[in-house]
Design goal:
The protein is an all-alpha fold and 436 residues long. The protein has a single domain, classed as Ammonium transporter fold, CATH 1.10.3430.10. The chain contains 16 helices and two strands. A two-stranded antiparallel ribbon has the order 1-2. The longest helix has 31 residues. The model has no long low-confidence stretch (mean pLDDT 93).
Amino acid sequence: MSKPKARWIVIFVILVILQIITVVSSGPVPAGDTSGIDKADTAWMIVATAFVLFMTPGLSFFYGGMVSYKNVISTMLQSFIALGIISLLWYLVGFSLAFGDSLYGLIGNPMTFFGFKNVGLAPHPDFSPTIPFLIFALFQLKFAIITPALITGSFAERVKFTSYLIFMCLFALLIYCPLAHWTWHPQGFLRQLGVLDFAGGTVVHMSAGFAALAGAFILGKRETKIHQPANIPFIILGTGMLWFGWFGFNAGSALAANGLAVQAFATTNMASASAMITWVLFDALVGRRISAMGACIGAVVGLVAITPAAGFVTVSQSIFIGFVAALVSNLAVYYKNRTSLDDTLDVFPCHGVGGIVGMIMTALFADKVGLIYGETQTFYYHLLALLIVGVFTFGGSWLIFKLTGMMTRLRVSTDDERMGLDLSQHSESLQINSAA
């Protein structure tokens, strides 16, 4: 047996230290005053949390089907591994950085909920007035999990697995947690400005999109940029899982089993349906064939765009949002493909641009405060937020990639890339019928 490399020894030691901290600080889950719990709200939030978790395996199928056959397993694992790593980070300090006592509206105090201290079964008046605080923390965890997983599509087929793990941890703590605090904490500075993000247009999709753009620039082009997707049925399956899970993503963000959740559920479905049909019809209009992959990408773009607006707009407005997002992202993919940028699975044109469209549409149509109601303040602050979030996530991710590159090599070797990441990184392979 070969000797383990030094970095794996360090990583394992860190894991052991985490376990020691967990054991030392462990105790019974604090109950507190649970009299304010609403059973219907709690039941819905448990279900919604499970829905959102289901999205990450869905994303792994969605991305896994799009890459070449020799990179399917590695691409799927890059999404799936986030379920484990981000869960531990969130428990230790991530939740506290995002939702702990606010430090100047920029970040949460890391000690407020360190190791889930004081995260118990009683409702929290600021975050979860009718549900246990613990289920709120777990619901937010699922958002933190899928965000770095979304980024992986930009550098698929060439990233070194260990460097990705390092990047994912740093991104979650230094980019995602501050953004969640800015946007969703009552004292977060974007929320104080009146910026509306119902379920993650800036926090999840724009951050992932701009980080993906930075990753595509830093890692450079693949040896072979053009490939045949390995498994179209995987893409369809992944899209179905994402669409299903997105109901928890958006409707769950109401944090209650109420009319707002129903509204978000309806707008989520209709925006995705509108975007899917718009995408394939636009493909046909410009002379491309209607394809299963196009239908799936369109559906996901609609889900992305409606995310920040889901609880603030009407069903008819959501259909229009899906229509606009599909057109803009379709064109963004087209023009991206005419450049030398190698964003493997079009994360920035779909998630980054889709998130931007969603935030602008939210500022246009948000009930009572949107531009169509004669209010300009929300619109201007949304434009400011788009600028701040874009610069922060792109610049911050660029620095994190550079820092990761100082610790370990970012890209696999040319030989490993030609072999495929399944074999070169994991010694596993997808069995392909030789006659296929």
